[in-house]
Specification:
about 625 residues; mainly alpha; two-stranded antiparallel ribbon; globular
Length: about 625
Amino acid sequence: MSSKWTLEACFSYVFAVLMFIGMHYFQHNQGGSGLELPFNLVVWCFTSLLIGLGLLKVSHSQRLRYNRSLLVMLFSTILLWLPLLYPNAEFGEFAIDRLLGLSAGILIIFSIMQLELSRQHWHHILYFILAGVLIESIYALVQLYLLTQGNWVGFNVNATRAAGIFQQPNVLGTFVLFGLLASAWLISEKAVRSKLQQIIVFGCCFFAAWAAIVSGSRTVLIALFALLPLLFPYLKNSAEPHLLRGWLICIALGCLAPALPELLNDGVARDAIGGETTAYRVTMLKVSWELFKQQPFMGWGYGAYDGIYHNAQAAFNAQGLIKGYHFNVAHPHNEIAYWAVEGGLLPLLTLLFLAGYFIYSIFKQTWTKACFHLGLLFPCLLHTMTELPFYHSAIVWLLFCFFVSKIATEAEGLCTKPFPAKFAPKVFAGLIPLFTILFMLTGLQTIHHISTFERTGSSDVSLLEGIINPLPMLSRYEFDAMTFRLNAASKLHLSDELKNYLSWSDSLMRRKTRTENYYNRIQAFKALGLTKQAEQTYQQALFIYPDTERVSFRYIFAMRTGEKALQAYLIWNKQQLKDKPDAALYIHQINGLVLLGRIDEALRVQQQASQRLPNELKLRNIPSLKPYTEPMGSS
């Protein structure tokens, strides 16, 4: 094989296409995480090719390259699969996707270690990372400052935070920090020589810092200002002084840049730091801790977190034990808490052991190099303690695995062992990309069909019937299909079909607590004439989704039931507000009035609410009223 087309060179080329094009793929979707987001499916297509190249290298060289860190990670991954065998893992199938993603990450690290990537190859990879970050940073700034109403990507121009392709501002913030990390690595290895390279590095630092600030993520801000002191001691000893100064100056200018558009727009600021989320995170952690204490040894079962959380939260809220009520919680926004609640002590101790060993291994180097390596991983590690970046973004997970592989190799070196099996690695090198790409491309078709189905009134069932591979969105696919059958059965009075829906929803309600699940179940009971069961379900939904919270089942039920029900709700709502003012009740009333087209009344209620509750910022910034309160032509 010519030097131009070595496996290492092909690895760089595939990675380059991913960072320049693949990761930025856009397709309309209905939100979510993991494989529900189209760009993640495309990233996994490229990732499978990268894994395949690593396995092909094993076949060609007939050698295995590894170190102790890789063995520890492999052993830890096996341990994390074991709770699937627990007797309480009723919903374990819904944890398989994250276990497969974790295992794929180990395969990525393994594949990178097999390839004999030279310093030049690694520098190219870092520059490709800079390119990807630069593209996303500029795209995020375009979203925030240049896009107009009705843009084809569907970005809400009233939003105060940019999200890039990720549809989640905090994930954008963590991703763009990779630009600062990659540039720091480049200048530490004196790989920034030409003027063009300096322009790329400094330009990326400037725009990445700007995008990080406008992402409005407190986690990202903490990570940004914590990683600098971690990186600086090693950079001071290894980087050329003028490059280090330029690096720091560009980051500082990027952090200051968001103030410039505000100064040019007569001081009209766009507040990037959005609503109060600290109380929500504290609540999730507090509820998770209580759940862990109740089942510390075997946990509540993989895949069960969503169902058990909301009932526990409602019970604690009724007792006045928590502040900050949260909804649609499928993850506690803390990775350790997630595994501990679902799997108990084994996953918890495994993760702590893995983290402890890795920190121990890198601190066998000089303290400046160890702090530098820790700083390279710090933004992602911090983010996993406050949210779920690896679930929202496959590219963040991939880059994290890249960094782990390189750091582990620098800290411990690599051992080489003969591996005479030549055929098996070559077969898997072909099969893994083949099946992954087929799965992900049919997944993109699934996303398109389900998005079209839901956006066009959920009435054209042929869209669901035309889906080839429902697995990437299996829960949503099943819900849409069963809801369509429920609606048809209600109209045609098909009692057997209605009972079939209730039987199916029994398991769903224990696994996933959502307002739409309660609503459908109530409709099924009513259609069967089971008014007592319908009322019991309604009361349970009110318990899970109280009236004075952001998500109120009473309001949602009225909104879905029809105009008369909504008008009756507004009468009830006003009566409640006479006795005690409440921000959430006011917001529900205003949103209901907007839905009914009573805009002037909604504006009066907002003014009244702001006077009665002057410290409630949410009352001054209600999204449904923005089109009627902002000046013409503003964005």
